[in-house]
Amino acid sequence: EVVEQPFDLPSLTPKMTLETVKFLEERKSNNEPFLLEVSYWNPHTDLLPAKEFRGKSRHGRYGDSVEEMDWSIGVVMETLDRLGLMEDTFVYFTSDNGGHLEMGTEGGWNGAYKGGKVQGGSEGGIRVPTLVQWP
Hints:
The protein is mainly alpha-helical and 135 residues long. It has helices spanning 12-29, 60-82, 123-126, and strands at residues 91-94, 130-133.
């Protein structure tokens, strides 16, 4: 089923967020177990956040993309809480491979760590955040 043509990248995260909320609500109403993976594309390559998030971060487009992803994760977590699913849901969040150094300051920042995406031999290319919430 084609839901949008041409594809609008800046609207993808808000749409994914709404679909995620609908998925969780349906599983809750049907009392069904679930496995859900939400894979955010935005901070990975194109750095095209929705217009509501552009210019919000002091870290350029990469920071704006992270702000948008943070908003979306917050909506998902609030939905789990609202539906009473927080105590029965394992949440795992991770990222990949640092900033886009070839984009300069617009591509993200790895702090003191050398390297970035596609530079797996350097800490900036392999150190990634991981957060877990276990019931």
